[in-house]
Every structure is written in structure tokens, then in C-alpha cells.
Design a protein that fits this description.
The complex is a heterodimer. By secondary structure, chain A is mostly helical. Chain A is built from 9 helices and no strands. The model of chain A has no long low-confidence stretch (mean pLDDT 95). By secondary structure, chain B is an alpha+beta fold. A 3-stranded mixed beta sheet of chain B has the order 1-2-3. Classes of the chains: A mainly alpha, B alpha+beta. At the A-B interface, helix 2 and helix 5 of A face loops of B.
């Protein structure tokens, strides 16, 4: 955590706008991550694994709630952001646009997708935005359990002796990494400005931290993280991600559209 | 005619839990003390004492014993409580807030309760008090 902090009042418009994008990127990613975990409450390889992803889904939604609440500091109504935006506005990381295809993809998601989001959170936590410095450490402590479970399952699948399991894991890893490396690198002016202001780490620093954290593990599935080519499809600077968006049905579930009229405070 | 046996009367409310620890009322409402009639000499300490009666919804030890209360203050009838939770997605947040407010607003010298959620430092089991740990051990819970 930084010794100095930057108040919202002291930020220029571009910084405020960039900060809003960063918070939305993280919050939407957490929300979708929780949704994708929740798909596996039933259908995981064991009851214990299903219960574990149930707890992780709960954590992710708690993190999303705390992150959306940070928007209040930027005079943005979190309720409106959470419950009215269409799927096209979601800023979640691209690899969460579709459900995980199989359990190997879930395991790769625990280590790689959840892991990349954690790297981005950690960088934001060590920056100079006080609400991030105070709220994110609790999220990071909860994420330690996600990584622990993910690593255990990754090693189990990679070392199971089943070529099918290892192949599914390798394919899920190879499909995910190019997008995550590009997402963490934040290749635009917003990313550079936020890093220059000390609100987060540079994209290069985040990518290095991510690669260092997974290099040995993904090698067990036959993947060389240093040889992975970064995604090159167009970059949507407004949302801080690639083109596309989660399917509308997923966002309807995330927003709670079906039962919104029953929401009572 | 056969003699009628007198059956023992069993309290059913707390059945299944140790009587000296148990409560099935939200926040331990059935064990809350009567409110103080007058403004105490040390209102902040009195707020702390009152909070020590508010139980966690899932484990029958108090929020103070769990280490969830980070700061307490009282000024001109307003009690301010800084509170954290065991998890970011704690499903009992609303219950806890309601129990805290209801317990404190029983006191005639508290006009309003101001609750502030805090996340720093993050709660861990290290924050459970010695008394809380002893009660948890009694319940068969390690912490």
C-alpha cells in the first residue's frame, strides 16, 4: 500500500474516467467470474469440488459488490451500474464472455482468469486510491483459497496420467492466456495514465507478475507461458477489453432481472 | 384408574444447544439486558457493553468477542459503530446491522445509530478474543 493517497477531487477528468473504467473492469470481471463458478455448483467432478466453487462464487460476488461500491466515490450510482447496463456495456475480461466448457476449463479459470484478476487487484491495492487500499486486502486474502484450490486441481489433472485430462487442460490454458496477457498489459493511454499517476502498476509489471506466478504450473500441462503470443484482435479503449461481450442471458442473471420487482430494502 | 404421570416440562426454544450459550433469537435478543434509564457516565463504554450482548447470527458468541467491532463512539445521542465482517460476501450482513441497531436503539440515551462498514485491516480469526475462543472451544469449534 502506498504511503500517499489521491483524492477524487484532486484528479483531472481523464484520471477520473480512467479510474472508473478500471473499477468497472474489475467489478464486472468479478461478477462474471462468480456467475461462471456458480454454473458448476452441480456437475463438478465431486460434491466437495461443487461446494468449493459455490464458496468461490460467493466470494466473487462479495468482491464485485465492494468494487461497485467504490464508484460512489466517483459520484456514480452503483445501483444503476449494477442493474441497468446492457451486456454490450460490460467491461469484464473477454475470456468470461462464455461459460466454461468443462471442468478443465474451470480449473484453468481458477488459476489463470481468477489469477489475472487478482494480479490487477493487487496492483490497484498498492496504488494511491484510498478506497482500493482499504478494501482490497480482504479480497486478496480470500483469493488465496481460490488459488490454492486451483493449483491443487491443476496439478491433479496435469499429473493424473490421463492424456485426455492433460489435453483439455492444455487447450483451456492456451485458449485463455493470449487474452489475459493482453488484458493485463492494458495497451492504451488510459492504462499508461493510471500507472503514471500511481493508481496501479504498469501493464508490463502486471504481465510479468502474472507470468512469474504461473510459469512453473502451466508447464506441467505442457504450456510455455513465455512462448504464448498475445491476442491481437481490436482493443476497445472505452471498456478496457477486446470486442464482444458476455451473452445477454448471463447478464440478465447477473443483474437479477427476473426477480428485480421483488427487491425490497 | 391408573395414576396420571407428570411429564417433565422441556423448554423447546433452546433445545439442542447448551443452555448457558444458546439462543435462537436473532442477535441473542432473548438475552439482551434491560435498557439503562439514564445517560451513563461513560456512554462509549456502555455502547461497547451493549454490543457485547449482540450475537453473531451463525455462532453464539458476540460481535465484540468475534472481533468484528473496530471502533465505537458516542456523541450527542449518536452512537457510531465501525464494523467489519468475516467475509466480503457474508450473507448475514443485514441481520447483523439490524441486530446492532435494534440493541442500541433500546437505550433511551441513543437517538440514532450510525453504522460504518470497514475492511481494513481485514478480519482474520486472530481478532477473536480469548473469551470468544473459550466459548467456541466449548461449542466444539476450533479457531
Amino acid at each position: 500500500m502506498s504511503d500517499t493517497t489521491l483524492s477524487v477531487e484532486a484528479m483531472d477528468d481523464a484520471t477520473r474516467s480512467g479510474l472508473k473504467r478500471l473499477i468497472l473492469t474489475l467489478a464486472d470481471s468479478k461478477r462474471l467470474m462468480g456467475l461462471r463458478y456458480s454454473d458448476w455448483l452441480v456437475g463438478a467432478p465431486s460434491i466437495e469440488a461443487g461446494i468449493a466453487v459455490s464458496s468461490m462464487a460467493q466470494d466473487e460476488w462479495g468482491h464485485a459488490r465492494l468494487l461497485y461500491a467504490m464508484l460512489k466515490d466517483l459520484n456514480v450510482d452503483p445501483q444503476e451500474v449494477e442493474h441497468t447496463r446492457p451486456a454490450e456495456e460490460y467491461a469484464s475480461v473477454d475470456v468470461l464472455d462464455a461459460p466454461f466448457a468443462d471442468w478443465a476449463a474451470v480449473v484453468a479459470g481458477m488459476v489463470l482468469v481468477d489469477g489475472a484478476i487478482t494480479v490487477a487487484l493487487d496492483a490497484f491495492c498498492r496504488g494511491i486510491f484510498d478506497p482500493a487500499c482499504s478494501r482490497i486486502p480482504k479480497m486478496l486474502s480470500e483469493e488465496e483459497f481460490h488459488r490454492s484450490l486451483g493449483v491443487a486441481w491443476y496439478k491433479r489433472l496435469a499429473g493424473s496420467g490421463s492424456e485426455e485430462a492433460k489435453d483439455l487442460l492444455r487447450r483451456a490454458t492456451e485458449a485463455t492466456l493470449p487474452v489475459l496477457l493482453r488484458w493485463l498489459s492494458t495497451p492504451d493511454e488510459v492504462g499508461s495514465k493510471l500507472a503514471a499517476m500511481g493508481l496501479t502498476d504498469s501493464g508490463e509489471t502486471q504481465v510479468t507478475a502474472f507470468q512469474d506466478g504461473i510459469r512453473a504450473l502451466v508447464a506441467t500441462a505442457g504450456v510455455d507461458v513465455d512462448a504464448v503470443e498475445v491476442a491481437t484482435d481490436p482493443w476497445d479503449e472505452r471498456r478496457g477489453r477486446g470486442p464482444g461481450h458476455p451473452e445477454e442471458e448471463a447478464v440478465e442473471r447477473a443483474r437479477g432481472d427476473r426477480n428485480r420487482m421483488l427487491f425490497v430494502e | 384408574m391408573a395414576a396420571t404421570a407428570t411429564l417433565p416440562v422441556t423448554r423447546r426454544v433452546d433445545a439442542g444447544l447448551p443452555a448457558h450459550l444458546a439462543t435462537h433469537k436473532s442477535g441473542g435478543r432473548d438475552r439482551w439486558s434491560a435498557p439503562l434509564a439514564d445517560l451513563p457516565d461513560d456512554p462509549t463504554a456502555a455502547v461497547r457493553e451493549a454490543l457485547n450482548e449482540v450475537l453473531d447470527p451463525e455462532i453464539p458468541i458476540s460481535l465484540m468477542e468475534l472481533g468484528l467491532v473496530y471502533a465505537v463512539a458516542w456523541e450527542n445521542g449518536v452512537a457510531r459503530v465501525e464494523l467489519t465482517y468475516t467475509a466480503t460476501a457474508c450473507p448475514c450482513m443485514e441481520f447483523i446491522r439490524e441486530d446492532v441497531t435494534d440493541r442500541l436503539e433500546r437505550e433511551p440515551w441513543i437517538d440514532r445509530v450510525e453504522m460504518v462498514d470497514v475492511w481494513s485491516p481485514p478480519w482474520t480469526t486472530d481478532r477473536i478474543t480469548a473469551e470468544g475462543r473459550a466459548k467456541l472451544r466449548h461449542l466444539g469449534v476450533s479457531a
